[in-house]
User: Fold this.
Amino acid sequence: MQHTSTSEVVIAPELAEAVHALPATDTAPAHAAAECLNCGHPVPDRFCGRCGQDAHHTHRLTLKDMPHDILHSIWHVDKGILYTLKTMVFRPGPTIRAYLAGKRVDHFRPLSLLFLITGLYALFYSVLHIDMMPPKDPNMPEAAYQIQRSFSTFFMKYLTWCYLATVPAWALAARLFLRRGGYNYAECLIIAAFITAINNFLSLLLLPVTYAYSGTPQIQTFSFYALLLVVAYASWAYGSLLNHTTIGRLGRLWRGFMTFMLGYFILIVAGIILIFTLNWSSIKQSAMQQAKAKQEQQRQAAGAQPPKARPSQTAPQPR
Assistant:
């Protein structure tokens, strides 16, 4: 009995220590839980337990993320389109900066937004048979008119793809003029996609008026004012992405304006080059026909004039 009691005194503390150490090892966290960038709740796993945001895809955007983001934008539709439209119209700068900082669960993805809005605009444009060209001015050369009509027809036919193709150009302009904001090129792609989508949303809202002036001489005047609205919004939206810098308000607006205009200039130049490339033979033929018609008019005008009196070749006879 004495031996048993002595053994229990020796073994029991070891067992107690082992049992005490087991829960401590089992319950100790392997690492501290990161905070959700959208709501600030601790996220021990992949998804936030409060708002549901994926914690594995809120790091700073890079070019490596673009292929996955493009595929996800095409094949998935997320919630938040009305919320995104509202905040982008009234608070574009804070909305985009919050999205880039990781608050993305409440927002519609920018490429999905651009696809959806531009696709709706192109659909309504096609169904309503809207003509953005005014009647031909008699003083305008036929070749120049055909170039304008070809450009308008091609651009509206492939509207969605044209805007997607120009997003990298606007992103390049944003990278140049918004560099004080600290945005990398991948983030500038997101910025350009958001703002281009809202520009097209404004055009979609103006579609009833566009339809009313379709094919009329007033369509050019209306298009000019609609372009001014788009330029004003884009300048303000791009410029508001520099609100956190020390640049003044006029400086921010100027940089926003230059960002949009540089991308718009690239779009126009690329469109003209493409139209000339695709329609070079017809444009050349039209120009030759117009030159022949002009020569014929000059020939007819010359033939309609009375012949000038020729001086007499015989010398006057002396009296």
Summary: Residues 23 and 138 are 92 Å apart (CA to CA). The beta strands are 34-35, 42-43. DSSP finds twelve helices and two strands in the chain. The longest strand covers residues 34-35.
